[in-house]
Amino acid sequence: MKISLCLIVKNEEKVLGRCLESAKDFADEIIIVDTGSDDKTKEIAHKYTDKIFDFEWVNDFSAARNFAFSKGIHDFQMWLDADDVVPQQSVQKINELKKTLKDDIDIVTMRYVLSFDKDGNALYYSTRERLFNRRKKYEWIDPVHECIPLIGNLHYTDIEIWHKKTDYETTSTRNIDIYKALENSGKHFTPRQLYYYARELKDHGEIEKAIIYYEKFLDSEAGWLEDVIACCHTLAVCYKNIGKTEKIRPTLLKSFEYDTPRAEICCELGYYYKEEGKYDQAFKWFDLATRLPECTSIGFVSTDYSGYIPNIEACVCLSFLGDFSHAIEYNEEAAAYRPDCPSVKQNREYLKSMSGI
């Protein structure tokens, strides 16, 4: 099995070399589609490939990705963004996969790590479609937050791709500008587009408008399960931010209609009761989050909600309740996730003084 690695780029001189250097030892060909660079992006790309193509930008990421895929000639097509990095252990796993992957596999997923703690451990990640059998002629959909639907014979892996933004980057309005142009044109949004537009609005501080679109998404009753659960969580946080506290609890509990409790939902319910001063009820939700099985969601996963956050918050709640001995236990559990955290150290000293241990 051989891989055509396909990237769409524009003005990526600061990161492209890093990306391609990390991928060159597994990619059998590298396709670069440039959408209008005026820096040294193409010059850097030429160090790794001569398959560089120009594509006129039409405010549609799917169109650009489909063009890139059309240039690949090998068995499987793979995508990366210019600010992605393939760690060495993943390069080794991909090369092993190339030897063993069966011909009937259509899509291979990999873990997309989006943020890290100071020790390099994954804090926030999702499972993304990454390799595609070329004979299936898959096509990208949606102009922003583009994807290929998970249809076919899937092979899930623990291979990691790291999304490594650089310090110089600023928040771009590119995505939200595309959505607003579509909105102004009278575009009918699909449920998925409603959800991702709401996310962009929230990320750009337009909370009340984001709420409108999150509500439209939930009302459609046609979203992907993982997006629906994530929407319940984020929508509840949005309600909290604008003071609509009466809507927080029912929105969080709505997520239980779709699947078993998720740690982030339990933690948010814990925050809800904690802010009301109901520390016994808050503790129960934080404690539940510590006891849930490891998340196997293929949506976005924040590992802190299963480890550090519920343990440190359970410690705080027990302290308010005067149960200092049990608070110590939860604080030490939190320390297992973040041993150098100032809050853990402060709690340790405080609880020691209060408990007399």
Describe the structure.
The chain has two domains: 3-163, Alpha-Beta Complex (Spore Coat Polysaccharide Biosynthesis Protein SpsA, Chain A), CATH 3.90.550; 174-355, Serine Threonine Protein Phosphatase 5, Tetratricopeptide repeat (Alpha Horseshoe). The mean pLDDT is 95. 46% of the residues lie in helices and 16% in strands. Helix 1 (16-23) links the parallel strand 1 (3-9) and strand 2. Helix 11 (279-291) runs antiparallel to helix 12 (308-320). The chain has helices at 16-23, 41-45, 61-70, 88-100, 174-184, 191-203, 207-220, 225-241, 248-254, 263-275, 279-291, 308-320, 324-337, 342-355, and strands spanning 3-9, 29-34, 52-54, 76-79, 84-85, 107-116, 122-133, 154-163, 301-302. The protein is built from 14 helices and nine strands. Strands 1, 2, 3, 4, 5, 6, 7, 8 and 9 form a nine-stranded mixed sheet that branches. The protein is an alpha/beta fold and 357 residues long.
